[in-house]
Amino acid sequence: MDLEEVASPPAAAENRRGQLLEAALGVFARHGYRKTSMDDVATVAGVSRQGLYLHFPNKEELFRTAVQHALRRSQLNVSEVLAAPGVSLEERLVGAFDTWVGQFVEAVGSDVDDLVSACRTLLGEAVDEEKRVFADKIASALDAAGLAKRYRRAGLTAADLASTLCATADGLKGTHTTRPAFVDAMRVAIRALCLPLRSPG
Is the whole-model pTM more than 0.90? Predict the structure, then answer.
């Protein structure tokens, strides 16, 4: 048992827990769920196996909590990017998709299907709900910038446009192996979508 884990004040313990979750995310991303052990995470995190078990009773709970931690962090970052003052809609959207999707393009290893399966099994619909929240944020940004109004005559809503961008991001994530390449491709898609803002009327 790690004495520092027992004696740490709440703030320090919470900070340590966050560090453990970040370490776990990296290991799960590289090796997949099935091939990752608690020992692997403990080694990368620089704690004993017992120290890791003080925070998480098993691998399932560690994975579940790590994914929830990543989603929560990403949502906060996305909100900050979309609210950035003095930044064009295009750049804010590119930043939002880079934050939500791009950060994982190079971080995830070859066993993506294993991670997706683990997410479905251990988190149920929680991941899908977070994706809906993200899409709603994108739709709100499109609406606030007046872009949705330009598409209204074509029968398209802000939600339709956001859904299209999200689907595009999912597709590009699977066809680009580097984060910069993903960002460049998303920039093209976003620029095309935002063209009506460049023209009068």
Answer: no
| Total count of domains within the chain | 1
Its domain, for residue 29, covers 3-198
Q: 98 burial class (0-12, 13-18, 19+ CB within 10 angstroms)? A: buried
Q: What is the pLDDT of residues 151-201, one digit of tens each?
A: 998 999 999 999 999 999 999 998 988 999 999 999 999 999 999 988 765
* Pick from 38, 4, 8: nearest CA to 24: 38
**Do residues 69 and 25 lie in contact, with contact meaning Cβ atoms separated by under 8 Å?**
yes
Query: 158-175 vs 179-193: helix axis angle to the nearest 10?
Result: 150
CATH number of the domain within which 140 lies: 1.10.357.10
- Record the tokens describing residue 82, joined without a space: 């979309």
Annotate 176-196 with DSSP letters as a single string: -SSHHHHHHHHHHHHHHHTGG
Higher pLDDT, 6 or 157: 157
Q: What is the DSSP string of 56-120?
A: -SSHHHHHHHHHHHHHHHHHHHHHHHHT-TT--HHHHHHHHHHHHTGGGTTTS-S-HHHHHHHHH
Are 97 and 172 in contact, with CB atoms under 8 Å apart? no
Residue with tokens 């776990």: 24
End-to-end CA distance of the chain: 68
